[in-house]
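User: Could you write out the 3D structure of this protein bound to NAP? I've included everything you need below.
Assistant: Certainly. Input first, then the structure.
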Amino acid sequence: MNFRTPASEPPIEPTQQTNPTEEAEATRTPTALVTGTNRGTGRGIAEALRDSGWNVLSLNRTLTGESWLGEIECDLADPGDIDRALAEVGERVDRLDACVLNAAVRRLHPVASLPLPELRESVAVNLMAPFHIAQSALPLVRAAGGLYVFVGSHAGTRFFEGGAAYCMTKSTLRALVEVLLLEERRNGVRAVLVSPGAIANRPGDGSPLKMSARSVGRFVEQLITRTPADIAVGEVEIRPARLDPQGALGLDRLQHV
Ligand SMILES: NC(=O)c1ccc[n+]([C@@H]2O[C@H](COP(=O)([O-])OP(=O)(O)OC[C@H]3O[C@@H](n4cnc5c(N)ncnc54)[C@H](OP(=O)(O)O)[C@@H]3O)[C@@H](O)[C@H]2O)c1
């Protein structure tokens, strides 16, 4: 028997099995929820995600009016506001590929004079709000097999005078990220703590001894978009590439601890 294809007919190629669900998944625009995108590092993160084709939703207390930020007004010190804002997130999207907990306050006072309202605000914004948002967003993040990015700080491990409110909240955030990662990997969800050193977060700050908000934004975007699916990065510490040549070195530095 001759099994050759007649010359008039093209050879039959093995058909590529296309799964419509997989196809839709591959072309879907991913969405990230980011807190505090109106300025500073949060804005750098939002811009980098937008530039790589992501849809951004923002929880902002101060609104910019820029539609690409997908802003939802939210005072992170107010749990009722967070509930309302997350309900709105749920109306806008049915999954979150990334949830970036960036917004924070840095109130610096010695323990002797730290006003308790400022400590309460720090705990509310830097700790309670990330927990509250992470918990409320969990069904949406699970639906996407998404990634939580918590923006920590060197202050979470390198404590300093005047830093009680900031160091305490950033330090405790580390525990939350670790527990979340342990609990949620089985649901396909990952969590990472990014702990930066000095960032030039204010407009016009071109200090070569700080990381630009834009660079930190690009770094976070790469972490979100480039980490292979079978790797969970638990924690990453980043710092400026250049060091002050006048700064204390070696033993001198230790003598100030
Ligand atoms: N800058 C640094 O050197 C540095 C270093 C290490 C880590 N970090 C961390 O990086 C993250 C971003 O820092 P950044 O320096 O870029 O901050 P930033 O420029 O001071 O901006 C803070 C952001 O948080 C928002 N925010 C504060 N309180 C809020 C509230 N109650 N409700 C809603 N939003 C609120 C601010 O909104 P408003 O405009 O409405 O105030 C703003 O969008 C923080 O987690 C910080 O701890 C910063």
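DSSP finds seven helices and nine strands in the chain.
User: Perfect, thank you.
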